[in-house]
Hints:
The protein has helices at about 35-45, 50-60, 65-90, 100-120, 130-140, 140-145, 145-165, 170-215, 230-235, 265-270, 275-280, 315-345, 355-370, 385-395, 395-410, 435-450, 475-490; strands at about 240-245, 255-260, 285, 290-295, 300-305, 375-385, 420-425, 425-430, 450-455, 460, 460-470, 495-500. The protein has about 500 residues and is α+β, with helices and mostly antiparallel strands. Helix 4 (about 100-120) packs parallel to helix 7 and helix 7 (about 145-165) packs antiparallel against helix 8.
Amino acid sequence: MTFDADHTDDGRPPTPRRAHAGGSMQFRTAPTGPSVNRALRAVTYAYLVLPLFALAAGLDRPRVRSWAALWTAAVLGLLLVVSIARAHRQLRRARFSSFVPSRAFALVGVAVATFCTAGVALGLHGGTFLLLPVIAFVVIALFGNRAMIWRGWLVLVAALGVETAVQLPAYDALWATLLFAATGAVLATMVDEVVRGSVRALERNRQLADLATETSTLGDWPRDLVPLAGRLAAVMDVGRFAVFTQLSPRQALRREVGWPDGDWPAWEELGTLAQESLERLTPVVSPALVATPARAGAAHVVVVTPATSRLGVPIDLPVQSSVAALLAAVLNRTRLISGLLEAANTDELTGLANRRRLFDVLQHEMARARRSGQPLTVAMMDLDYFKRYNDTFGHSAGDELLQRFAIRTGSRVRAQDLLSRYGGEEFCLVLPETDLDGAMALVDGLRAKGAGQDRLGRRVTFSAGLATWDGAESAEELVFRADASLYRAKAAGRDRVAAAPTAS
């Protein structure tokens, strides 16, 4: 069996999968120029020790014990040299499809056999030559997965058994084989742990880069962050985490995301840890939790995790700091985008929704009214004799009147209603779940109170037109009917409310 990754996208441990038809042996990473080059160099360096061992054997005992074994070792050694040279040529031509686990495993197997036959030919010399096949076997741990290492160890045991059985009594051969096979297993395990750690660090960096790319398009904080929570947990190697924000120094910390438990950690458990990390702008560690801050413009993000990873070791603070910085960048960007969108949908003079926002909301309310069967009414309101007001008191006074009308009217409608500036001195009021009679009562009550007073204390009036959605017309058609009612109210003498008949 082998595994797809150290963790799945949702942060849970992976489930085993069967390897492809070529067997369970796999490279640690996909073959690339640098990785293949390093593996070939490691193999070459391992084989360079063979002449040194041969020289030592010659100086110690200049006698060949088995010429057949020596010629066999020479042929296998030549095969190794040719294979390595061919691999280097394929590397230069970037033919990575030729680098497959089975071929690499076979190459190591040939090396083990070469060294064992050389040991038979030149003699054990106190077990010195038994180290050669062990060195060749350990090379597997540099580039192969554990399935490849396990199979390679079985080949090593068999080769050592043959080498020792030819030259030693059965009892001594057994212990020599076990000793050097165990040494090879320990060395391979050590190399495997180091390499796995390096590969995991590279994979973690790749996952962070992928997350940075994906989060660059997020526009809704923190809702768009929730689908990525499991992957963030996998990068930090934790079973749970939480994200807190402080949008300004005067505001309290707010929990934005908790994974997989939305309310973890409890505020009592968190205590002042997150606040301390904000004050120091460095990670703060307690026996149970770690809080890591990052700046997001004027705001701050704090990532809280357990103090230990899923492996039971202290959390990797540099990785957690990278995640916090990534989330801070997301928050800063989404706040900027949100501000731009709000500016694009807001009337600069009155602070009300503009026409763009009006029609977006109308589309939403029409869909909701269609589902619920509730009425939807629109009111168009226009200040009476506004041009005369500007000519008499000036345009700045006219702007002030529009602002006062926006505040005055906005404070008298429900939170679910939308008051927007349609253009000039004309305003549009969207009234969800309100029929024509209810809208008439509301708007006529607003009209009775007037739009404000002019500089001489005289009452300023406005006229209004109403239209209730018929369930079929478009947003533009609904607004047009309300606007037509407004003009009828103007034509009838102003300071009044007119209602449009239902569209046919």
